[in-house]
Amino acid sequence: MTWLVTGGAGYIGAHVVRAMVEDATSVIALDDLSTGGADRVQGAALVVGSVLDGPLLDRTIAEHGVTGVVHIAAKKQVGESVEDPLKYYRENLSGLVTLLESCRSAGVDRFVFSSSAATYGLPDVDLVTEDIPGVPLSPYGETKLVGEWLMRDCATAFGLRYMALRYFNVAGAATDDLADPGVFNLIPMVFRELEAGSRPKVFGIDYPTPDGTCIRDYVHVADIAAAHLAAARALDDGAQPATYNIGCGEGSSVLEVLDVIGQVTGRDVTPEFVARRPGDPARVVAAVDSIRDGLGFIATRDLEDMVATAWSGWRAARD
């Protein structure tokens, strides 16, 4: 069995490749290197190219005997997707269509799809279950939800067996060399503020939560990789299509995250409170019963581990 990981040189993709290599799973990485780095792919062959390139996908699948695909390659910045929706529909949906066409032509029927909690929009519930209707608030979230619909239709049309994995807030690093190079999420954004000698900003202090700040479900990227590996194993064993949340099932507020960052870094994290950002829900926490029951997966790493490994990778990248 050989698995192709698209986006395999990126932050999440490289962790998935590493987990598969360590599991002795045959794996090939494909990445256009627009945000990833070739040095992140170790123990697996790297094919440089885009999922929009159908002939390249056909050759890669044939030459390497690919039997399953983990599709992570995508554009993923919510704000950018609002500014340039055509880019997101082209990269995320046209890329998915091209990849699925290559899979159908080659008879590859196992497919793990990198989806997102952004498919849910603003769920007004304590725990977000997979059966909550998706009402995404951005073109990015829309492309992920439509991608899930497309796979469902392909399952009906030609027997595609897929698993859609909806990530919540990904953080941390398995090793320093695989740390997140971007500064788009809360933890690295706070690191940047601290390095600049600025106070971290907290958007809103009047939410209906215990401390007035937003609550999110943070999950370690190494746990994300383990979930992908579990999904691939299940498909190899004949599992049928399913959609799962990947989270810890517990929420942490912005102030709680800042407190852990202060403990780990030894820095003063006294925040500057500013106005709410439009569209930020008060609480988004995953229900994780389905993935536990379906794949036997449970996230094992806590928030302190996420912050500590993210901080170690942040400093290593700047030494």
Can you describe what's shown?
The termini are far apart. Helix 1 (11-22) crosses helix 7. Strand 5, helix 5 and strand 6 form a beta-alpha-beta unit. The mean pLDDT is 95. The strands form four sheets. This protein has a seven-stranded parallel sheet, sandwiched between helices. A three-stranded mixed sheet has the order 12-9-14. The protein has 319 residues and is an alpha/beta fold. It has two domains: 2-170 and 218-246, NAD(P)-binding Rossmann-like Domain (Rossmann fold), CATH 3.40.50; 172-216 and 250-284 and 301-318, UDP-galactose 4-epimerase, domain 1 (Alpha-Beta Complex). It is globular. It has ten helices and 14 strands.
Produce a short descriptive summary.
This protein is an alpha/beta fold and 319 residues long.
CATH class of the largest domain: Alpha Beta
Cα-atom radius of gyration:
19 Å
**Residue runs with pLDDT of under 50 for 5 or more positions:** none
Instruction: Determine the CATH superfamily of the largest domain.
Output: NAD(P)-binding Rossmann-like Domain
> How many angstroms does the end-to-end distance come to?
40 Å
* Spatial strand arrangement across the major sheet: 3-2-1-4-5-6-11
Biggest sheet architecture: 7 strands, parallel
